[in-house]
Amino acid sequence: MSGKDGATRTRVLGVATRLFAGRGFEKVTVREICREANANVAAVNYHFGDKMGLYREVLDQAIQVMKCTTDQARAEGEGKPADEKLRAYVSVFLRRVIKQGRDSWIHQLMMHEIADPTPALDLVVDEVLRPRMKYLGELVAGIVNLPVDDERVLRCVMSVQSQCHALMMANPVARKLTPDFTADDGQIDAWTEHISRFSLQGIASAAR
Known about the structure:
There is one protein chain. By secondary structure, the chain is mainly α. Helix content is 79%, strand content 0%. It has helices at 3-23, 30-36, 42-48, 51-77, 82-98, 104-115, 121-144, 151-169, 171-177, 185-207. Helix 8 packs across helix 9 (171-177). It is elongated. It starts with a helix and ends with a helix. The mean pLDDT is 89.
């Protein structure tokens, strides 16, 4: 690939990332992407095959970051009891999704993908969600001494993850309803402790 072709590919990918994250796959056109990227409309087919190929490339970038979140949670829980591993997971997840930063586009993209799924959703499920749920399942099973495939374990895993996602999705609302919601380290620590304690008590109750 020539330097000019490489620069065009980079521009198209950058614009596509911003537009797909802002409005989702269906509401963005190839012509719009190429116009903002100052590229010929044929550039998408040349570099990515088609619009879906371009979207998958954008999604793959998001997947790599999300996989890193799970990897970091595993690393921070390494060698700790199961309940502390759960706290480490919640802490890492909340810090990644609540704080506004360079990766905030990923969560916008995923909200659109969940609300209006494309065939590429299977990639997210297979490469991110299944491994993440498997890890959480192992933690919960270890806490309550039940098989990983026990239905109570699955329900608890979904409950833990749902609390984290609810806080992520409600973040803009929380900022409006609660003026002191600043998403700083102190607030995230407080939410981590609340979700962890609430979850551990609920897990124990479900096991009984």
